[in-house]
Amino acid sequence: MKQDLRILLVEQNRYQARLISGELSEKFPSSSIGVFSCGQTALNELRRSTFDIAILGLDLPDVDGLGFVELIRRENHTMPIIAIGGSESEIAVAEAAKAQADVYLIRDGSLYSTFPDVIDKLCSQLPVETKKLDSAEKLQEKQQADLIRITAGTLYHEINNPLMTILGMAELILDNGYECDREVAKKLRIIRRSAQRIQSTLTRMSTISRPAIKKTPSGQMIDPRKSRVMARSAAQGAFSTE
Description:
2 domains, 57% helix, Rossmann fold, alpha/beta, 8 helices
């Protein structure tokens, strides 16, 4: 079983979340663990990113735990889901199974040491086709991000020169004592802010490493603010003219 797992942990109790993530980090040191204290934030991240397995506490502050399990299962048909509940009753186990959780664990003293073995077993049962599909999706996502960066980078270089002229002229008039009435100065500041906003958006678009998609009345679009971007050193290399 691969060790570089991407684990989604949703647990409102911060102390218990630390215990669980600590146990998992020790067993799977190459893995990444996304920890969230409420369901809606975790769902947003799950829709942006890919995870290998989900660990969900059922006593969430903002959503019904079992309903949350059902929602995740509808959107992720094969991802293993571990549900954590406080009841040992057969009804609780049956309800978790009905919500299509793969495993139901009781919140007790042995919970934390149980996770590694349970995850080992669940991930070893993933079909080979699913892993291949995951790799294909990663490749497609990277290709899309590369295309976005190339297109946005070209636009950046085409638009940046006139933008710099606009910004330079506005700053020259506003900051160097040229006389202009208050209304003209107000409009120049609006022009400067607009130009800076365009420049900032283009810069971010040019460094996207994982695009986030949002729905708009016109259809799906890339959300530059929520998309992941390259590290600064990598971004500097991308803009190098050498």
